[in-house]
Amino acid sequence: MAAKLPYDKDDLTSTWTYLEAGVDKILRSLRDGVNMEDYMGLYTAVHNFCTSPKPVATSFGTSDGQHRGANLGGEDLYKNLRKYLQYHLHSSVANSLSMPSEALLSYYINEWTRYTSAAVYNHHLFRYLNRHWVKREIDEGKKDVYDIYTLHLVTWKDVFFENVQSKVMKAVLNMVEKQRLGEVIEQQKIKSVVDSFVSLGLDDTDSSKSTLEVYRYFFERPFVTATETFYKQESQQFMSDNTVTEYMKKAESRLEEERQRVGLYLHPDIMSTLTKVVTRVLVGDHATVLRDEFQKLLDLDRQEDIARMYKLLHRVKDGLDPLRTKFEHHVRRSGEAAIEKIASEGEAVEPKIYVDALLGVHTQFAQLVSYAFNGDTEFVRALDNACKEFVNTNKLCKEGSSKSPELLAKYADNLLKKGPKAVEENELESLLSELMTVFKFLNDKDVFQKFYTRMLAKRLVHANSNSDEAEISMIAKLKEACGFEYTNKLQRMLNDMQTSKDLNANFKAFQEAMLDGEDLKQAVDPAYAILGTGFWPLGAPTTPFIPPPEIIKTYERFQKFYHEKYNGRKLTWLWNLSKGEIKANYIKGTKVPYTFQVSTYQMAILLLFNDSDTNSYDDIAKATALAAEWLDPSIAILVKGKVLLSTPADGKPASGTTYALNYNFKNKKLKVNFNIGVKAEQKQEVEDTHKTIEEDRKLLMQSAIVRIMKSRKKMKHVHLVQETISQLSTRFNPKPGDIKKSIDQLIEKEYLERVDDDELGYLA
Amino acid sequence: THTPAKTSLQPALNKLFDTYRGMLPYSTCDLTDFPVDDTDDPDQIGADGTMKYLEDLSVSLEEPVMLAVLAQVKAPTMGELSRGEFTNGWEAVSADTISKQASVASQFRESLKSDANLFRNVYKHSFVLARQPGQKSVLIEAAVEFWRMLFSPAGFDWTTKGFNWIETYLTFIQEKWNKSISKDLWDQTLFFAKKTREDPSLAWWNEAESAWPSIIDEFAKHVKSLPEHRKITSADTMDTS
Fold first, then answer.
1. Which of A60, A447, A589, A717 could cross-link with A405 by S-S, CB 3.0 to 4.6 Å?
2. DSSP class per residue in A391-409
3. Can you tell me the distance from the alpha carbon of A724 to that of A703, in angstroms, rounded to the nearest whole number?
4. pLDDT tens-digit map of A203-249
5. How far is B147 from B156, CA to CA, in rounded Å?
6. To 10 degrees, what angle do helices A244-265 and A187-199 make?
7. pTM over 0.80
8. Which residues form the Cullin family profile domain (chain A) (predicted)?
9. Whether the Cβ atoms of residue B94 and residue B100 lie closer than 8 Å to each other
10. ipTM, interface predicted TM-score of the complex
């Protein structure tokens, strides 16, 4: 270092004058460049000043004078630099005072860019100071001493920012408002301001870290307030000038716009606050008006608008509750209306029409829930509640009546039964699934079960089930919905039919082995169904009956066969459900004889005419031993079908009437069915079914109560009632009053006792 | 000191018991001091003996105190007294003579209205008396008679200002209840009567949460529907007694 220094390295004033000129140049015109020589000179000056020993008076009286000396040297430079920066920034403030806000905004950004670039440069220039004096001061816990870069920022904040920030923010907010009103703005400028404000957030405890406090206080807070004011005003204005549906579109797009704004030029930190405020102003404050529109939208089925309303109110706390209530009510009303519509067409409604009406409403609103309410589980629940209401209580199914389960079971029967209206198998499966949708809403599942069991029994006994697979599939569905116990009997019935099939095959082989050719020809071709008494809802015949001799041999043979196979089992013949086909060889003028499909009772009657062309009513009654209630309708159908001719011609089946075989019988079909159930009989059956339901329910309640008490031993009366209701709710909804009566009875029968006025105990 | 006293009363009481045992129908015979032993069971007093006995105690068949006396000696049925229960019952209150027993009876007459424990015992035993032999429950006709006596002003007065609970109850139960009265219903009726006397407004009654036998629930519902009941509830809220 031979060259002479342009300053006295031991003298502060001299050194600082040299440094200030350099720093000033860096601050004002860094863009013009600083040459390496200047940089080295300045850097060395800092180094030299800091390292030169200073014979200063401060060494007196202190224990480590040399150290202090070095300290003081650094401190002087630091203080001078800070003073200079303050001076520099004050002149920037002075320059800005007359600027309009837009110009100020640009000025702020320019100044900021220039200043921070210089700060980086100076930070390097004063590296020696940073490393030694500053580091030591910070290590010793001095506040208000920063590394050189941070010193720049702190000074900026204290001087320039402090003086201009409100004006800058005003400019920013002006721009944003312009943009909200549709003008194009230079949003990059706002982004720069945001970055600058964020940079100024210095952590007091650790200057190397930054916090968002400055940004939040000086940017976010006024920004959010301005936004709130803007949208408050706009939304009120818009709402008074437009329809609610238009408003919702506006609100939706505004919310989206604000969300995007954050990504474009704001700090992500603002997102939640901004969204919250905008949502409150645009949605929360107008929630009542929006909700008031909901019913109208439902009535007009405006799905898109409903979806929009859902999305908007979804953002507000508890915003959807009133909607859900209205929706539930609306669905319920729609369901009731759908049934009222079909109910007006007459008392007896087709099961299909009824079920279709119920399903239609459910399908419509299930679709709405998934489209407009995004499949929201709460809305699904509201839909289910509403469906439960109108499925169980409507104009055709009055409170307390069991019309719904009855009609649904009939509908199932129609689907599963062979017949002209039978549906294709592939279609059948989806219809059964739909049926289950309605089934799940039924309160009185036990009633459905009763009717279904009866009808299944008929289908199986009369072999007119459409498809075995569909029967199995339906039972599987019911089992899935209600459990094993619910379908146990149904399953057993199917099993019985399968076992019977095998049994018939075995019997055929047995018969063939026993009989010779001639006898075999003579024998009737029988089919038997062996039905377990406990599982089938079929009663033994209520009338005595003498089967015709023609079939006696055959059925006795079967009985023998069966008893050999299953010793000790008792067979009861359900003649009332038996049927057969007989050929009418006697009729004149046909090449192929007619075949009559008849009940066994009718068969017994007709076979009498093999021996005699005329038989009196009393003859028939004596020969068949049938009670009048069975005999009379059986004859009546044969007379009506002109198989028999009665004398007198209009004679009722009664003593005194005689019957002759009609040799001139004619029919379009070769196979004629006379085995037709009687209407009155069917009605009686429905009544019987309902009656047994009442009895069954009493038993169900009592056994549930006993079961609960057996496991609990002691229980409060109220809790027992609740528990019983909940245990039985999968089958039917018991009334608390009925449960109380059951409890009364159980106390009387000494299954239970009152251990306290409101507590019951179980008596083993 | 109690034990000797106890044993000492038994002979006297047994003697007194024998006086009434096997008595002839007393209308046809006024030889009251001469017992006629015509029953097979030496430990029982029959109907006529019981009637005579009650008369000697100056207890009328029409007043509830009669039931208190029968409860004291644990009479197995209405016209029957058993030796063991008779002697023990009276010994417990140290009453070994007719006059002492008569004074106990008149004490009962006084305290039946105020002594809840005494009344409850009498009420409970009344169920036993009201039953037909061998039956678990009480015929409705008998129950009505007993209730009318028990819930009269001389017993547990089941009326409140402006409302006659007992008559309303008896009318209702005769109309709506076609079965006999179970022990539970008997017991719960007294409990219900107590509650209604404490608060005749029935504000405490709640069908959904009550544990009453169902007929009592129905009765409560019925009462609430009566205009004269509505009147007393509103009057009651006025004077806060």
1. A447
2. HHSSSSS-TT--HHHHHHH
3. 10
4. 666 656 678 888 889 989 999 999 999 999 999 999 999 999 999 99
5. 10
6. 60
7. no
8. 403-639
9. yes
10. 0.73
Nearest residue of B to residue A760 by CA position? B211
The C-alpha atoms of residue B233 and residue B212 are separated, in whole angstroms, by: 21
Q: Is the Cβ pair B184, A736 closer than 8 Å?
A: no
Strand A671-673 and strand A594-599: the pairing is parallel
- Tell me, yes or no, if A725 comes closer than 8 A to chain B by beta carbon: no
Choose between A679 and A547: higher pLDDT. Answer: A547
Instruction: Determine the Cα–Cα distance for residues B168 and B202; give it in Å rounded to an integer.
Output: 15
pLDDT band with cut points at 50, 70 and 90 for residue A69 = very low
| Chain B neighbors of A736, CB-CB under 8 A | 207-208
A744 vs B208: CB contact, 8 Å cut-off?
Answer: no
The C-alpha angle with vertex A173 and arms to A169 and A179, in degrees rounded to 5, equals 145
Name the DSSP letter for residue A465.
Answer: B
How far does the CA of residue A717 sit from the closest CA of chain B (Å)? 5
- Interface contact B191-A759, CB threshold 8 A: no
Distance CA(A717)–CA(B207), nearest Å, equals 12
Number of H helices, E strands in chain A: 31, 9
Cβ-defined contact of B211 to A758 (cutoff 8 Å): yes
Report the distance separating Cα A488 and Cα A394, nearest Å.
31
pLDDT in tens, A378-411: 999 999 999 999 999 888 888 767 889 999 999 9
Cβ pair A309, A297 in contact under 8 A? yes
Say how far apart CA A406 and CA A446 lie, in whole Å: 10
Residue A608 CB burial class (10 angstroms; 0-12, 13-18, ≥19): middle
User: Whole-angstrom Cα distance, residue A625 to residue A548?
Assistant: 11
Q: Does A717 touch chain B (CB under 8 A)?
A: yes
